Amino acid sequence: MKLIFKRCDEEDFEDFFILRSDDENIYWTGYDKKPNKNNLKNWYLKQLKRDDRLLFIVRSDETDEPVGYLYLDIVGDNHNIIETGHGVNSKYKGKGLGTEIIKFAIDYSKNELTFIDEVDGWILEDNIGSIKNVLKNGYDETDERKKIYVENLNTYKFLKKYVYKIIRIS
Ligand SMILES: CC(C)(COP(=O)(O)OP(=O)(O)OC[C@H]1O[C@@H](n2cnc3c(N)ncnc32)[C@H](O)[C@@H]1OP(=O)(O)O)[C@@H](O)C(=O)NCCC(=O)NCCS
C-alpha cells in the first residue's frame, strides 16, 4: 500500500471527520463519544489558519477511504521542535501505516522544515501501538512524563516523551 500525504485544506474535512469518528481514535484521544460535526469543522478550519500546526491527511493507492492523519506542531522557545499527533483508520491498523506516518513526520521535518532540530512524541504509557511507531523510527525514550486527565476514563494517566534528534550534515 503506497501512502499519499497531503496538506489538509477545507475539502479534506469529510475525511478528517471520518478518522476522528473512528472508535479507537475516540478512545486514544481521550473522548467518550464521536465528535459533533459542526464543532469539529469550526475547530478544523481554525487549525488550517495556524502557522504553528501543519495538518496532513493520509490516503493510499488501494482505497478511496482516508487511512490516517498527522499533525506537526512547531513548539519550543526557539520554535525548533516538532510535536506530532497521528492516527490510523482502525480498519487498516497493524499494517505498518502508523510507523510509516511517523517516518514521514521525520523526513518532512528534516527536508522541508530546516529550522527543526528535534521531533518529539508525547505518548500515553499504555498506547503500545504508538510507542512501537516511534521506537521503530529510532526515537529515544526519555524519563520526562506529563500527568493528564483522561476524560473518557475519568482518571489521570501519564504521557511519556520520546525524542528523535535530527542530525544535519552541512
Ligand atoms: C497508534 C496507531 C497510530 C498505530 O497505527 P498502526 O498503523 O496500527 O501502527 P503499525 O501497524 O505501524 O504498528 C503498530 C504496532 O503495535 C502493535 N500493537 C498495537 N496495539 C498493540 C497492543 N495492544 N499490544 C501489543 N502490540 C500492539 C502492532 O501489532 C504493531 O506491531 P509491529 O510493529 O511489531 O507489527 C493507531 O492504532 C491509532 O490510530 N490509534 C488511535 C490514535 C492514537 O493512539 N494515536 C497516537 C497518539 S500518540
From TrEMBL:
Q: Which SUPFAM superfamilies match?
A: Acyl-CoA N-acyltransferases (Nat)
Keywords on record: Transferase
Please indicate if the UniProt record lists Transferase as a keyword. Answer: yes
A Gene Ontology molecular function term of the record: acyltransferase activity, transferring groups other than amino-acyl groups
Q: Which InterPro entries match?
A: Acyl_CoA_acyltransferase, GNAT_dom, N-acetyltransferase
List the Gene3D superfamilies hit by this protein, alphabetically.
3.40.630.30
> Taking every annotated instance into account, which residue ranges of this chain make up the domain N-acetyltransferase?
3-160
What is the name of this protein? N-acetyltransferase
